[in-house]
Amino acid sequence: MRSSTLLATAAALASTVSAQSGSGGVTTQYADAATGINFQSFTTPAGYRFGLVLPPATDASNKDLIIHLTSPLNSAGAGWAGIDFGRSMVGPLMLVAWPSGSTSNPVIMAPRVARGYKPSDTTPYTTNAITLTPIAKGTFVNSTHLSATFVCSGCLNSDSFDPTTSGTASFAYAYSLVAVATPADANSRLSDHTSQGEGYGSFGADLASARSADFGAYVKLAQTAATTTTTTTAGGGEETRAPTAAPAPEASAPASGGEGGHGNGEVVDMEYRQMGPGAVAALALVGVLYLLQALSVI
């Protein structure tokens, strides 16, 4: 009886924590009020949101897509939001957005690639040509959140996912409540995304439902003026930086936790963390309780 009770309690706790972490699940339809764009969207209870729109199936040669990122910020208005085009953060193309500190160009968006789990392991992506062009109505910073909505030209490449599948593609998300090292620089080093207890994990994107006949109209919402900030990387390692915004004020953010990309230097693949760290800890606790019971300690 005691064993059954322990197992049931742990299972309930693990289920609850996993749901709170935002990991798992598949995208659903979301209509963005600011832009009028209908996204396939993934959302967490903490306020992180990812949105995706793909070209229609009749435009199979189109390598562009539209991305929406919303993420909470700390009390100083700092932090960043990221989406990785793969189940694990290491290897695939990653797109990141953060407040620049400039009123004329409030959000910087940048393509990245992670070679490991430390902040210093995430570097500018230069393998394929990519251009990020913001959609103004969906790109802003307010007192609590960052919103970045942009056309990602060239993002459907060998480092992202196969858009021809009618099923789901695996994505990984992360966000941080700590300022990046140099907010005005598109090549800034990122901060740790776990030091303040931020959520991260993986989910599935329904690619068939992400395709939209309105894709061309949505793309036209993107800014095209010469003053628009676009981040472009050229293949072969050549890199063109985004126009530099005015330096951001110092953010009184908590310490980033040094090099520990997953807290205290722990290196854990997201494929093994889908349930969330709290759920894993709960199940580990049950194991300890069973061991103590077997030894007649409890």
List the secondary-structure elements in sequence, H or E: HEEEEEEEEEEEEEHHEEH
- For the record, what is the CATH homologous superfamily label of the largest domain? Cellobiose dehydrogenase, cytochrome domain
CATH secondary-structure class of the largest domain = Mainly Beta
Please state the average pLDDT score. 74
Low-confidence region ranges: 1-22, 225-277, 285-292
How many DSSP E strands? Answer: 15
InterPro entries: Cellobiose_DH-like_cyt
Protein name: Cellobiose dehydrogenase-like cytochrome domain-containing protein
Organism: Lasiosphaeris hirsuta
Pfam family, one: CDH-cyt
Explain how this protein is built:
By secondary structure, the protein is α+β, with helices and mostly antiparallel strands. The chain folds into 2 domains: 1-23 and 275-298; 25-263, Cellobiose dehydrogenase, cytochrome domain (Immunoglobulin-like). The protein is 16% helix and 28% strand. The protein contains 4 helices and 15 strands. The strands form 2 sheets. Strands 1, 2, 3, 4, 9, 10, 11, 14 and 15 form a 9-stranded antiparallel beta sheet that branches. Strands 8-7-6-5-12-13 form a 6-stranded antiparallel beta sheet. α1 packs antiparallel against α4. It starts with a helix and ends with a helix.
Descriptive labels:
298 residues, alpha+beta, 2 domains, 9-stranded antiparallel beta sheet, 6-stranded antiparallel beta sheet, 15 strands
Give the SSE layout.
Elements: H1 2-21, E1 28-31, E2 38-43, E3 49-53, E4 65-72, E5 80-84, E6 93-99, E7 107-114, E8 122-124, E9 130-134, E10 140-141, E11 145-153, E12 168-176, E13 200-206, H2 207-210, H3 215-219, E14 231-233, E15 239-240, H4 277-294
Antiparallel strand pairs: 1-2, 2-3, 3-4, 4-11, 5-6, 5-12, 6-7, 7-8, 9-11, 9-14, 10-11, 12-13, 14-15
Helix pairs in contact: 1-4
